[in-house]
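quick one, two chains, predict together pls
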Amino acid sequence: AQRVTQPEKLLSVFKGAPVELKCNYSYSGSPELFWYVQYSRQRLQLLLRHISRESIKGFTADLNKGETSFHLKKPFAQEEDSAMYYCALRNRGGADGLTFGKGTHLIIQP
Amino acid sequence: GAVVSQHPSWVICKSGTSVKIECRSLDFQATTMFWYRQFPKQSLMLMATSNEGSKATYEQGVEKDKFLINHASLTLSTLTVTSAHPEDSSFYICSARQPGVETQYFGPGTRLLVL
C-alpha cells in the first residue's frame, strides 16, 4: 500500500534560516509527488509538484527515488512561510486521488 | 484561478439524520471531484472519487451506502452522510480537477458535528 510519511508534526525556525520539511513515501512504481500548503484560515493549495521541477515562493523539492524522499527546502525562511505543509502522492490505477502525509506545521519566528 | 466552493461551511445535526454537502467548481468544469475526510490532528484521507455521469469510486473501508455521492453536473458534486452518527463528525473537504489538468483545487471544507 502506498504511504506518505512526514516525521515532523511541528518545525520552528528563525526568519532567514534554512528550512527543510521532510517527506518520505512508499509506493511501487513511478511516484508522482506534490507539496500542498495551507495558510491560516485558508484552504489547501498546491505549492509545487515534482514533475514541474519548479521553484515556488523560494521553495524547491527534489525527488530522490533511492531514498524514497521528496523533502521541501527553502534557503531563507520568511515569516509568511508559516503554515501547514502536506506532502502528497498521487494514486495511480485510475482513481487519481491523493494520499496525504499528516502534515508539518511550520512556524517562522521573527 | 480555479475556485471550488463548499456548502455548508459547517453543520450540526442530530444522530440518525442525513446531511448533504455540496461541492461546486465556480469557474471551470470538473469532470472529476474528490472527497476527503480529515479528523482532528490527522491527515486528509481520500474517501471517494466522483466522476460526472458515472458512479463514484470508493476507497477501501468507506461505506458507499453511508456516504452517497452524486456528480450530476460538471460543476456540482454532493456528498450525503446518511444516518449520521457521532463518529462521522469530521471535516469534509472536496477537490475538483479539470480535464487534462493534474492540479486539484480544494474547497474550504465543511465541518460536520453529529450530536
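The mean pLDDT of chain A is 91.
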